[in-house]
Amino acid sequence: MLFETIRLALRSVRRNVLRSFLTLLGIVIGVAAVIAMVTIGSGTTEKVKQDIAQLGSNLLVVRPARPDRSGSTNFTARKLGEKDVASLAKGLTNARAVSGASSSTVRIVYGAQNTQAEVTGTDLDFFVARDWSLTEGRLFTDSELRGGTAVCIVGQTVRSLFFGTGAAEGEAIRVGKISCRVIGELAPKGTSGFGQDQDNVVLMPLSTYQRRIAGDRDVDTIYVSAAEGATTSEVSRDIEALLRDSRRIAPEADNNFDVRDMTQIADAMTSATTTMTGMLGALAGVSLLVGGIGIMNIMLVSVTERTREIGIRLAIGAHERHILVQFLVEATVLSLLGGLIGIALGLALAGAATLALGIPFAPSLPVILGAVAFSALIGMVFGFFPALRGARLDPIVALRHE
User: Fold this and answer.
1) What's the distance, CA 354 to chain centroid?
2) Is the residue at 264 inside a domain?
3) Smaller CB count within 10 Å for the chain: N or C?
């Protein structure tokens, strides 16, 4: 019975292909828009998570605080130094690595080639805190770190520009005004979520950077990686207590340093993209209601056109429920077809968009199944009134209909 009803519904759709397609268009556009928006939003969220993870696992970043322009801040600005790094390295029991680093944009020259790159002076803990490994070469030795030796490790962007497919290890490049021997190559990290090329970098010992590039003993940033099992919020509180003590900050004074929890930043950015995706998906879902109204309209027309057919079926013994089910199934099939076409179109649009934007393709199976179910529900809800109207026709009146 149900199979025969579905067959009749499909035959009715084929009988008026153009009209059926125009009726489906609202459902197709609505479902495609929802699928595309949610998939792109999920891909953006995944990209944010990947970018934050590339900075380091369970990473906290400490930087000097900047006074508020309004003058309402209650602290004296002060840069970070090696004493702060030593204080955290000694006092933090729940940290996997503590690394001080300073960086600036410097011109790098090799032969006839030159480029601007971020030069960072740091130590061995930097590679642990930032989850950064080498593809070739070696790390700095203790003597190079203490003595300020002019050695460096280059990122993949710098290596590709200067050395192509050749080996960089052992070559000498000019970093600012000093000649620096390349001892290793960093593993690629790609572009960050803020559009920064993380591979356009040169690392050297912090003492070398301070003496020969920066000309001071300051530390721009302290990277702290929380140990396994320790939460970043706990480590953040410990960092604040240690630095307030070592920097002799009065109880009533504000911190003259900032502690940024990259996990919280990732959660905030993820929440923002998820909320935006939900809003765009809901907005696109409005077109589904428009499509439902289109289905109601076409089903009312269908009932009118087939009044005599309904009268004949009622006259030869069909019950009202048979007529009701027939038109209800027809509306549902029509809506489901639109939903399936919309899903295919939405995934295709999302795939093209993710390729263009360089974000992961992350379709959601629950959303796809939900779109199918919702499109079927739209057909049932908006097809019920026309189906009920057809079922309640008087057979005598229906048979007289021309």
Assistant:
1) 11
2) no
3) C
Which tokens sit at 250? 């009065």
In a domain, 72, yes or no: no
Enumerate the H helices of 256-394 as residue ranges: 262-305, 307-315, 320-357, 365-391
Bridge partner list, 225? 59, 97
> How deeply is 152 buried, as exposed, middle or buried, from its count of CB atoms within 10 A (0-12, 13-18, 19+)?
buried
Indicate the pTM of the whole model: 0.63
Residue-wise over 50-86: b if at least 16 C-beta within 10 A, else e? ebbebbbbbbbbbebbeeeeeeebebeeeebbeebbe
8 domain-assigned: yes
Mean model confidence pLDDT for the chain: 79
**Rounded average pLDDT over 276-302:** 69
Do 238 and 285 lie in a common domain?
A: no
The total number of structural domains that make up the chain: 2
The Cα–Cα gap between 32 and 25 comes to: 10
What number is the average pLDDT over the span 182-206?
84
Verify that 109 and 224 share a domain, yes or no. Answer: yes
